[in-house]
Amino acid sequence: MSILKEILGSFRRDTAGLRACPRCGSSIVTSRMPLEGWMLPVKYVCKNCGYQGVVALEEEREAEP
């Protein structure tokens, strides 16, 4: 059971990184469908080029000491 807790604890939750479109590189927003992020994968939408999909580039911020 402790292994399961460790694995679940390692998942990232709602990171503060910026998300970018994999097609054009501009900032990207998530669509807010009722079951996204729970039963369905989160869908990202780019207002610049029209990309819609489940893949987005994410900038990871380093932890401040």
* Strand portion: 15-25%
Contiguous low-pLDDT stretches (5 residues minimum) are none
**Extended strand count:** 5
Number of helices in the DSSP assignment: 1
What characteristic shape results from the CA principal axes?
Answer: flat
How is the largest sheet built, in terms of strand order?
A: 2-3-4
Mean pLDDT: 79
Q: Main sheet?
A: 3 strands, antiparallel
Q: Structural class given helices, strands, pairing?
A: alpha+beta
Number of domains: 1
What pattern of helices and strands is seen along the backbone? HEEEEE
- C-alpha-based Rg, rounded: 15 Å
Please estimate the helix content: 10-25%
Q: Ends: how far apart?
A: 32 Å
Helices and strands in order:
Elements (H helix, E strand, L loop, with lengths): L1 H9 L8 E2 L8 E2 L13 E2 L6 E2 L3 E2 L7
Antiparallel strand pairs: 1-5, 2-3, 3-4
Please tell me about this protein's structure:
The chain is of the alpha+beta class. It has one domain. Helices cover 14% and strands 15% of the residues. The chain contains 1 helix and 5 strands; from the N terminus they run αβββββ. It has one helix at 2-10, and strands at residues 19-20, 29-30, 44-45, 52-53, 57-58. It has a 3-stranded antiparallel sheet, with no helix packed on it. Strands 1-5 form a two-stranded antiparallel ribbon. The radius of gyration is 15 Å and the shape is flat. The model has no long low-confidence stretch (mean pLDDT 79).
